[in-house]
Amino acid sequence: MAEKGFAEHFVDDGKNFTLEKPAVLVVDMLNDFCKEGGCMVLQEGLEAVAPIANLIDQARTHGVPVIYINDCHRPGKYDKEFDKRTPHCIDGTWGAQVIDELAPQESDYCIKKRRFSGFFQTDLDLVLRELGVQTVVVTGVVTNICVRSTCHDAFFLGYKVVVPRDCVRATGPREQDSTLWDIETQYGSVTTSDMVIQKF
Ligand code: ZN
Fold it and tell me: Does a structural domain hold residue 23?
């Protein structure tokens, strides 16, 4: 068999992946990113709300941990992210809260982050190891920034990565396609939330 080249697109249509010891990560579904009046709104983010709500509902029913990864920056303090972006998701403000439609429940975990990756300088990896998680199903916004960074680190740390494409939104169609192309080729599986739910 010929060696696969760098340019090859590895497609996993979701039929072949398995979900060993899964957890669902909900990345940055926060008012500042999703709701009118937020300071960095991605309108398309709201399109992902219904499929994420259904997915985490099914996860809870099946005893699959639901873990929110929430951007959270200190009020009045410098943050490296503000070199490139307007200050956002300030701790204690409405903008830093999870949108009402996806409000965390008692059994869920909430982890604050102040970089794009949910793993960077947080205890996400520790929580996942304590729970015995092997597969992370990554949802939320935005595909090409925080979702992507979280997928990269999950892969680097040895987790299996699954991204349901209906549960993530990017800054544009080019970024969505490009990022999901890279994830399914280099880091994990890209599929649909229906396919994930079937395997819970
Ligand atoms: Zn941020």
Answer: yes
Q: What SS3 state is found at 136?
A: strand
pLDDT digits (tens, 9 = 90+) for 76-102: 999 999 999 999 999 999 999 999 999
What residues have a C-beta under 5 A from ligand 1, the ion?
Answer: 71, 81
Q: How many CB atoms lie within 10 A of CB 120?
A: 14
Q: Is 4 a catalytic residue?
A: no
On whether residue 1 sits in a domain, the answer given is: no
Number of domains observed in the structure of the chain:
1
Active site annotation includes 28: yes
My answer on whether omega of the bond before 142 falls inside 30° of 0, hence cis, is: yes
**Buried b or exposed e, range 121-131, using 16+ CB within 10 angstroms:** ebebbeebeee
pTM of the model: 0.95
Tell me if 79 is assigned to some domain: yes
What is the domain range of residue 177? Answer: 19-198
State yes or no: is 113 an active-site residue. yes
| DSSP letter assigned to residue 174 | H
Does the pLDDT of residue 151 top 80, yes or no?
Answer: yes
Beta carbons within 10 angstroms of residue 113's beta carbon? 23
